[in-house]
Structure formats: structure tokens, C-alpha cells
Amino acid sequence: MSTTTAPDRRGRTLPFGRYALELLMIAVAVAFLFPVYALVTLALKDPRQISESPLAPPSPPTLGNFGDAWSSASLGPALVNSTVITGVSLLLLIVLGSTGAYYLARCARGLGYGLYVLFLLGIVLPFQLGMIPLYKLVDGLGWLGTYQGMVLFYTGIQLPFTVFLYTGFVRALPQDYAQAALIDGCNHRQAFTRVVFPLLRPITGTVIILNAVFVWNDFFTPLLYLGGSARETVPVGIFAFVGQYVSDYGLVFAGLVLAALPVLIVFVILQRYVIKGFAGGLKG
């Protein structure tokens, strides 16, 4: 019984099922890339081109929308606010998550397992259940409309997920390095900072990307905690901008491109660590 085959680019014969799977993957890739194409295309068009042929390539492309969007939506201060909140939150998540995971994975077997389960519950339970108590807590501290209120919120919300990622990776690491450092006279803190943490580079890249995307793109929490203040983040600024300039889609999409660029750059730089981080954690 013969099997239907098709040649690949190198002239080899592929089973028909694999050939069909490759075609399916190409179609999926096109489906995912189409929104990006539409976003960039509309951002590079003037209103006349958008009304005549919205999805056709811009002819000629214009960069004026980006300058107008930057000045009209006050994206400069919003980008600074988002950068500060995201950067400080990531720093705290890396420090607390990595040290907590090291303790849970190596230093306390019985107690560590119970604490690890509590962190897992923090992942399962939706944070929306505690929005009102959290809001009252931040309000009571006088931190509404401030950086520290947002940093406190994001650090607490994302810490269980961060600990989960780090713990799986730490468990997969050989214990010989840390034990050798302890034998040489280091305490656990020194063994972690000098030996273990440099080995956590792949999962740290994963932690940075996943948490940065969440914090940077979050809209509801900054709207609730920062709305109407001078600390509004990019999503909140874009929301107000879209409502004001909803008829000028070139400006709207240019603002969206500017808002997405920073986190996209971070992802391109650190993307190779994502697979390494997940693979290392799964081995544990």
C-alpha cells in the first residue's frame, strides 16, 4: 500500500500528513501576523489612504502620525511611568522570587513544600476576588496615584507565579555547586548570590518577559489606582487618546505601535531565554 508524499524544499519526499501540517502551520502564522500587519499599515497611512484602502500597503508611507500621537496623547510621561513601575516591579520579583524559590527548593523540605503549595494557591485564585480589600489597603496607606502603590500590587500579584517558575528551575540544578560553596565556608546567602543565581539566567529571562508583558499591558489596575493622576501608564493614556481621536485611526494605531515597541524590544532581546527557562523547569 503506497503512501501519498510530497517533495520538500530540499527535494526529499515527505508524507502527505506532514506536508499538510506544514501548510496548516503556515496558515496559522499568517493569521497571527495579519493583526500586526494591519496595525503597522494603518499607522503609516494618512486619513485619505485609510478611507480608500485601509489594508493595502501605504503609498506613500507617512511617519507624521507617530509625532502627532506622541504629542497629542502625552505618551512621553506615560512611557516614563510605565517604565518605572515595570522596572521596579521586575526587580522586586526577581529578588524575592529567586531567593524564595531557593529556600523552598533546598533549605526546608517539609515546611518548604507547604509554603510552595500556598504559592500555587496564589496562582489559582483570581486576584479580582481581592480587588476591593486591596484598593482599601492602598487607599489607607495613602498610595493611590503613586508608584509605590502599583509596585506593591504587581509584586504581590505576580510573586506566586514567579516563585513557581524559579522553584522548578532551582530543583533541576545540580546541588553540587551550592554544596561546594557551603563546604568552602559560604553561608546560604553567599552560596545563592555567588553560585546559584548566576545559573538562573535562563529562567530570569523568562520571568522578565512574562511579568513585563503583564505589568506593561495591564489596563484595569492602573485605571483604578492611577486614573486622573500624573502617574497614568501607557494603556490608560492610550485609552483616553483613543476616545478623543477615535475618528483619526492613523493617530490611534500610531499610538498603539509606540506603546507596544518597548515590550517588543525586550521580548526580542530575551526571547531565547524563554524556551531554556521552561525546559529547565520542566526537567525538575
What does this structure look like?
With 284 residues, the protein is mainly α. The chain has two domains: 17-62; 75-246 and 262-283, MetI-like (MetI-like fold). 77% of the residues lie in helices and 2% in strands. It contains 13 helices and two strands, in the order E-E-H-H-H-H-H-H-H-H-H-H-H-H-H. It has a two-stranded antiparallel ribbon with strand order 1-2. Helix 7 (147-172) runs antiparallel to helix 10 (201-217). It is globular.
Order of helices and strands: EEHHHHHHHHHHHHH
Q: What helical percentage do the residues reach?
A: over 70%
- Provide mean pLDDT, rounded: 82
Flag low-confidence runs.
Answer: none
Per CATH, the class of the largest domain reads Mainly Alpha
Concise overview:
With 284 residues, the protein is an all-alpha fold.
List the keywords:
mainly alpha; MetI-like fold; 2 domains; 13 helices; globular
